[in-house]
Amino acid sequence: MSKPRVLHLGAPIKYNPTIYTRISQKFDIIQPQPSELPREEFKRALKERRWGDFDAVFRPFWNTGGEMGNWDEELIGLLPGSVRVMASAGAGYDWVDVKGLAKRGIIYCNGAAASSDSVSDMALFLILSVFRNLRWSHSAAHSANPVSFLDAHKNSPLSAYNPRSRTLGIIGLGQIGYQIALKAHNAFGMKILYHDILRKSPEMEGSIEAVFYDTLDKMLGESDCVIVATPFAGETLMTEGRFRAFKRGSRFVNVARGSLVDEEALVKVLDEGVLSAAGLDVHASEPNVHPRLAGHPRVMMMSHNAGGTVDTHVGFERLAMENVEAFLETGKALTPVNAHLVEKQIRSVL
């Protein structure tokens, strides 16, 4: 009986050679050349069935293997009918149509579990930044200007607060959101509120003393700081109307996706004092950042590095391989994103 065939997109394995050796013995690994990955050539290869039938696709790194661009209806439609699972590095999946994959019966797996520590650490840094005016202090120190330094030294504390006992509203209490809540609650002593599509278990809520809100706007109005930790679902979440539902003078942090935020609206509510500060790891038009947000004295910005550690890279690579291995051997992936949609599709056919 022939081995399952797996398409490996991107650079060779770097961190987990033992796992790669193991799956190479179980499956036939096909690795396209870099010249075959740009979109038009990749499409041509699929149309020509250059790699024949294969059962799985995995992309172990976020910096390579994505040269073909978004996995939309056009690209998904060219996959052989044998494909059953796709696993990729990265927590976000705005570049892949997970509903479209589900229609083809393909499970999509992400790497959020591998990045939750790194992202939640960065989230805590940004939360501390927006409470303590760290953008002001940081910019003044880097200016090497004594006048600016003394101004920040004397005056930034007049509007800085400790996060302890303040309320943190979390949009999306998944793996990353939960780690943010756990660290903010235990390290900062913050009170946790959250909004999600589904309410979490009493055990999870109890571990962080969290309060669930089924209405997002109500949670926004009761939070001293709001953080977005939910995947992009195809539409802007943080609109001007949503920002105006915030408690006046509260703070905003985004470690999810820039496309979730109306950045013009964010500038407006910052200038009006609706929000006192913002911390952004992600941006709507990366690698370009909004110029007014970049120059705003109450906005701390990073270059989409929340998950960017060697530890995360190691975990992404491992999880991409192990998801494929688990699914091909047991029929169940470790971190499926769209399993519920695939099951729904199967039920509709039956």
UniProtKB/TrEMBL annotation:
Keyword Oxidoreductase applies: yes
UniProt keyword Oxidoreductase, yes or no: yes
Residues in D-isomer specific 2-hydroxyacid dehydrogenase catalytic domain copies: 70-338
Residue ranges occupied by any D-isomer specific 2-hydroxyacid dehydrogenase NAD-binding domain in the UniProt entry: 125-306
Single GO term (MF): hydroxypyruvate reductase [NAD(P)H] activity
Record-linked Gene3D superfamilies: NAD(P)-binding Rossmann-like Domain (3.40.50.720)
A cellular component annotation (GO) from this entry: cytosol
InterPro entries named in the record: D-isomer_2-hydroxyacid_DH, D-isomer_2_OHA_DH_cat_dom, D-isomer_DH_CS, D-isomer_DH_CS1, D-isomer_DH_NAD-bd, NAD(P)-bd_dom_sf
UniProt cross-references to CDD domains, sorted A to Z: Mand_dh_like
Keywords attached to this entry: Oxidoreductase
Family label: Belongs to the D-isomer specific 2-hydroxyacid dehydrogenase family.
Name by which UniProt lists this protein: Putative D-mandelate dehydrogenase
Species of provenance: Aspergillus steynii IBT 23096
Lineage: Eukaryota, Fungi, Dikarya, Ascomycota, Pezizomycotina
